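Researcher: Next entry in the queue.
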Amino acid sequence: MLSRFLNLNRRSFSDLSEQEILALAISSEEDDARIYQAYAEGLREEFPDTAKIFDDMAAEEGEHRRWLIELHQEKFGETIPLLRREHVKGFYATKPDWLVKSFGVDEVRKQAATMEAQAARFYLAAAERTQDASIRKLLGDLAEAEAGHLALANSVVEIHASKDVRKNERAAEHKRFVLTYVQPGLAGLMDGSVSTLAPIFATAFATQDTWTTFLVGIAASLGAGISMGFTEVASDDGVISGRGSPIKRGIATGVMTTIGGLGHALPYLIPDFWVATYLAIAIVFVELWVIAWIQNRFMDTGWTKAIFQVVLGGALVFAVGIIIGQS
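Model: Structure for this entry, 327 residues:
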């Protein structure tokens, strides 16, 4: 959860000046050009036609960068502020090109499409915030260009996958649903289920008092839910990332975090300590497997990786709680 708080150190997009918006656009175009060139080199031997597409995209990103620099020189002079994507809320970190290439042409296409969709949203949002007519025009033109790149990136897979029948509108709706509700809710459920294991079971085995354990569980669950909910709202306004309303994401995260903790806290309403504990352990087991299934179903996480991350991690936290409670 600490890593999520670190997003609070990023600048809000709404606070950027027109010069900073241009600086961010310049650095983004530079990064995208390098990434596309790396994709092209990695695919050239096996997929030369696809490599040529990425060569062209890299060249066009370089042209966009030149336009932006010329406009910055005209409006603000030679010194360009150092501002990158990682400095601004709402930008996803781009996967390393070597990692993307290792998963093949389809993964490269999906990553490129994500980059272009985010770039188009960025330019549209930036154009709406600028007052200078020449800056507004260039940003609007670049938004249209990035939208064209998005269509080109989506077409890459069609060269190699004849059975790929994609319904763009339904895919976009599904992606938005996943980004707005599933991903934040899953993060909350994982945090609530795993992070509350240690305090609940440490209290249970230290006191063997079901009511005290229940109160600790309620406090831990509600506290984690409120914390995760507000963190999600503050971390990303959704304008550039396309993740949807921060309020909806915050509610999804907070509610699922609370539910994740309450699952193994509520059994301690049962007065008998061992009955309550065995029931809580069974619920924990079910929770962890449900989380692994959601990761596999909606987040394209392999079963082995999901089990390792969730089930094994949860088991270790559970064991820590018992050991501390019995010491």
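Model: The longest helix spans residues 48-76.
Researcher: Noted, moving on.
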